[in-house]
Amino acid sequence: MKKFFVIIGCLLAGLQVSYGQAAASKQLKPRELREMAATVQQFLNVLPDSLKQKAVFPFDDEERFNWHFTPRPRKGACYKSMNQSQRQAALAIIQTVLSEKGNAKTIAIMELEIILKALENREPNDHYRDPENYYFTVFGTPGGKEPWAWRMEGHHISLNFSSVTGQLLSSTPAFLGSNPAIVPDGPQKGKQILKLEEDLARSLMQSFSAEQLKTVIIDVKAPGEIITSNKRKAILESSQGIRMAEMSLIQKKRFMELLNVYLDNFNEELAVNHMKKIRKAGLDNLRFAWAGSQERGQGHYYRIHGPTLLIEYDNTQTHANHVHTVVRDLTDDFGEDILKKHYDQQAHGK
After folding, report:
1. Where are the beta strands (DSSP E) in 164-293?
2. Cβ–Cβ under 8 Å, residues 245 and 273
3. What's the CA gap between 149 and 163, in Å, rounded?
4. Hey, what's the signal peptide range on this chain (predicted)?
C-alpha cells in the first residue's frame, strides 16, 4: 500500500493545480444561464475534433438519461484525454453551477479515487480507480431558446443541468458519493468529505423524543443503496417519516441546516430557486425519515422527502464507510417538466 501513497501527493497536486488555475481564471463565478452556456461553448471550442465528437450528442438522444454513479464505461469527453487548457475549461463549467463548497466536494471526490486505489492494493497500471476518469457530455447546442443540457459524471459524481427555454434550468439529478466515507489510513487518515451530511442528520436524530422516533424510524435495517438508484424518474411509493410541522422549533432549525447542506452545493441562484420551489410546496410538508442503526460505524440511511424534493443519503456498503447522496426534483429531473411545457406552447403556436 505504501508505494501508492508515495505518489498520492504528486497526483493530487496536479489535479488541484488544474482546478486552481481554472478558479483563478473565473474569479467572478457566473450565475446566469447565458454565462453558463458561454462557458460550455468555450469548453467545446478548445476541444479537438476527436474529443468534440465524443462530447456532443443531440438533445433528444437517450444518452442524456443514461446516468449512473458507479465505475463503468461512459460516453463523453474524458478528463484524462484532455490537455491542461482543456481541463481548465472543463472545470470552469462546474464553477458556473456549483458553490465553492460544491466545487470543493467535487474535486475532493475525484481525488479520493487515488486513496481508494491504494486502499484496495491495486497495481499502478490498474486504472479502475482513477481521478481523471470523469466525462463531460453536452446535449444540443449551448445557448439560445432551443433545449440543451450538459453532464459531468464518473465514479460517485453525476451532475446534470438542462436548459429548456433559455431562461429555466433543471439541476438534477445531482449525485455525490464518498468511498471511503472516512479515510482509514495513510497521509489523509480521518478525512471525511461528506461530514456535515452525517453529523447534522445525527444531531437531528438525537433531538427527537422516543415518541417522535416511532414516526422517524421507518425500518430497523437500512437499504443497501439509495432507493431510487439511477432511475430516470425518482418515485417513492409512500411518504414516510416525521413532517416538519410536527417538529419543535429547535428541530426545525436543525432540519433546515441539514437541508441547506445539500442546496448549498449549488450556486446561490440555483440554491435560491430550489428553496423557492420547496417553500411554494410548503415547508411543513417536508418529511425526515431514518432507517438502520443510530450507532456510528453501523449501516444507516435517511431521506428528506416533500412534494417536489427528494434527498437520499445511504451509508451501508464497505462496512458502513461508503456514502451515496442524491438530490432529485420530483417534478423536473432533466428538465422534463419545463420541456413538456415548452413543446406544448410550440404546439399551440405560442
Report:
1. 169-170, 174-178, 217-219, 242-243, 287-292
2. no
3. 6
4. 1-22
Length of the chain counted residue by residue:
350
Reported as type and span, the H/E element at residue 198 is helix 195-207
Q: What is the pLDDT of residues 17-52, one digit of tens each?
A: 555 554 443 333 335 688 899 999 999 999 999 999
Helix axes 100-119, 2-25, angle to 10 degrees: 160
Reported in sequence order, the residue ranges of the chain that DSSP labels E, i.e. its strands, are 56-57, 77-78, 135-139, 148-154, 157-163, 169-170, 174-178, 217-219, 242-243, 287-292, 300-305, 309-315, 323-329
CA distance 128 to 230: 21
Q: Name residue 186's amino acid.
A: G
Backbone angles phi, psi at 101, to 5 degrees: -65, -45
C-alpha to C-alpha distance for 285 and 257, rounded to whole angstroms: 17
What's the one-letter identity of residue 203? S
How many CA atoms within 13 Å lie on the side-chain side of 346?
11
Domain extents in the chain: 2-172, 195-331
Strands (E), 193-236: 217-219
Instruction: Please tell me the distance from the alpha carbon of residue 59 to that of residue 168, in angstroms, as a whole number.
Output: 16
**Interatomic CA distance for residues 96 and 109, integer angstroms:** 18
Q: What DSSP designation does 137 have?
A: E
pTM above 0.90, yes or no: yes
The residues with which 141 forms a beta bridge, in sequence order, are: none
What is the rounded end-to-end Cα distance, in angstroms, of the chain? 63
Q: What is the largest CA-CA distance in the chain?
A: 66
The Cβ of residue 321 has, within 10 Å, a number of other Cβ atoms equal to 17
- Residue type for position 252: K
Of all residues in the chain, the percent with pLDDT exceeding 70 is: 88
> DSSP letter at 234?
-
* Amino acid 24: pLDDT: 41
Cα 190 to chain centroid distance, Å, stands at 22
Cell of 51: 474529443
